[in-house]
Amino acid sequence: MGEVFLAYDGELDRRVAIKVLRADITATDATARLLREAQALARLSHPNVVQVYEVGEASGRIFVAMEYVAGVDLRSWLGREGLIGRPASRAQIDVILGIMSQAGRGLAAAHAAGMAHRDVKPDNIFVGDDGRVRVGDFGLALASDGDGDGDGDPS
């Protein structure tokens, strides 16, 4: 749905990730989905959730400026550690449990704010070089009506 670019915010002297709706996607529902992602993340302030800084439009394309996480997604981390397709050692299991615990805290904060992520996978969990884990890509997030039935568009 979107492309992500690394950029530099000169006013605030920091690197940011910019998610831009792909040019070939013009459907209103895709635009609404990206805006929903930005709004969901902007409502959350938690160390284990990627922070949104700004949402806007440039050259007819919607963008979201968000926290840049220096590091890798969980899938890449698992591959780098040689943990895809083979058993983990006890020490590796302890590290993985720490990562998942941090991701769980971020997801719990989202849930407490009335959000359901709906697309939790290794590609959407980021392991920072600083050791902090963040959950991102809330593009499928829906505001919960509190009944816990998870209703919404499954596509």
Compile the SSE list and pairings.
Elements: E1 2-9, E2 14-21, H1 28-43, E3 52-58, E4 61-67, E5 71-73, H2 74-80, H3 90-112, E6 115-116, E7 125-128, E8 133-135, E9 142-143
Antiparallel strand pairs: 1-2, 2-4, 3-4, 5-7, 6-9, 7-8
Question: Care to describe what's here?
Answer:
This protein has 155 residues and is of the alpha+beta class. It has one domain (2-143): Transferase(Phosphotransferase) domain 1 (Transferase(Phosphotransferase), domain 1), CATH 1.10.510.10. It is 30% helix and 28% strand. It is built from 3 helices and 9 strands, in the order ββαβββααββββ. The protein has helices spanning 28-43, 74-80, 90-112, and strands spanning 2-9, 14-21, 52-58, 61-67, 71-73, 115-116, 125-128, 133-135, 142-143. The chain has a 4-stranded antiparallel sheet with strand order 1-2-4-3, with helices on one face. Strands 5-7-8 form a 3-stranded antiparallel sheet. A two-stranded antiparallel ribbon has the order 6-9. It is globular and about 50 Å long.
How much beta, percentage-wise? 25-35%
The largest sheet is: 4 strands, antiparallel
Q: What is the CATH level 1 assignment?
A: Mainly Alpha
User: What is the 3D form?
Assistant: globular
Q: What is the helix/strand order?
A: EEHEEEHHEEEE
